[in-house]
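Proteins fold reproducibly. Look at a concrete instance:
___
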Amino acid sequence: MSARAVTRLVVIDAQRAFVDPAGSLWRLHGPDEIQPGLAALDRLRELLRSRDYAGATIWVRSEYVPGQFTGGDLSAGMAQVCVPGANVDCEWADGVAESMSPGDLVVTKRHDDAWQSLEFRSAIEDAVGSGVTRIVFVGFQFTTCVVASALSTQQALRGRSVQVAVIESLTGSRVSSHRSGASGVSRMESTRRQLAAAGVEVV
């Protein structure tokens, strides 16, 4: 992160849904498939413990409705992802809550794109209004909620001298997202290109 920029760190969905044996992603796909996410969580916890960055953190957590991402199919493996009270998904991942500081802000999103949350938009606008010039996204997952939130934030702040960035090493993913698809390009690479084309820095 540039020392010249006033940075606000945004942590997306550091919840048990994506990294915990009892979470939806692990139960559906198994530990091998989510290894990149587990490694990202370890690195993220190390950063959070060190507080080796300036300013408060914006913590974004998800609360969804049953079947939101399965076309209403409640028998699908991800039908109950981050549904309050349905399982452990909405709880913070192990070691995350202990890293929060009194000045941090927790907001809730109900879509993959955090920008659709009024709480999140207000938090970003307040940050920019206070002099923040760099919004840095980390968390879960790179190819879904992180990319959607970073792109919308970049679009909303275009022309306001604010750089939006994603730190890939601190962002979760699945093993399958690193494999090349029919086009010869992996989902990870496609996401990197999408972010870069929009002017979002991928670190």
In short: The chain has a mean pLDDT of 95. The longest helix spans residues 35-50. The chain has one domain: 7-202.
